[in-house]
Amino acid sequence: MTEDMTSRRKGGLFAGLRRSFLTGLVVVLPIALTIYLIWTVIGWIDGWVLPFVPTSYHPNELLQHYFGEDWKYNVRGLGVVIFLFFTIFVGWIAKGLIGRSVLRWAEGMVDRMPVVRSVYNGLKQIAETVFTQSSTNFDRACVVEFPRPGVWAIGFVATKAKGELAAKIPGGDDALTVFVPTTPNPTSGFLVYVPTKDVIILTMSVEDAAKLIISAGLVYPNAKDPTIPPRA
What we know:
This protein is an alpha+beta fold. The chain folds into two domains: 1-95, no CATH class; 140-214, Roll (SH3 type barrels), CATH 2.30.30. The chain is built from seven helices and five strands; from the N terminus they run H-H-H-H-H-E-E-H-E-E-E-H. The protein has a five-stranded antiparallel beta sheet with strand order 4-3-2-1-5, with helices on one face. A hairpin with a 6-residue loop joins strand 1 and strand 2 (152-160). The mean pLDDT is 80.
């Protein structure tokens, strides 16, 4: 009886430690990964920007100058600050008359370069879509029958079908452009044109739908009560 009680106690102790470890992992892992990614991105920007800054003005050099040669800590962030101010300055210049003229001249030069033209125009369109607040951004999550009837996939409504597609697709004048992302990498996917009547708009926000896709259905909005639609 004593041995049985001892083994039960050990089993309960290990089970409690396991639950505590998993709970701690759920708390610590997202924080650690977020800090690691931010630190890595800052280091990448610093590594790209700091070569243009005189070595004597690098943070580590300045700190060693004031605190001695024993200073061995890696300080990051100066490149990010310089990059932010430089980007703001370029944006301010580009909005002016001279800046717009220079930009048109530079883009005219790029348009004469066959390969560079394609790369530049593609990247420019992506940047304008991602970073500008306009009606072309994904603003609604939906479900559509994809890749065959009876099978449903989460998608994001981009805009209504336009131009030649709207004219030549049957019912295209009332079709929506829907991006159906893949799991767990939502940056790739399929672009489909679906009649408006066949698109079911979801109440959940685009962010919640993205979480659902990235987690392969494991992270559901309003997990405490899935019967209640999440607030947009």
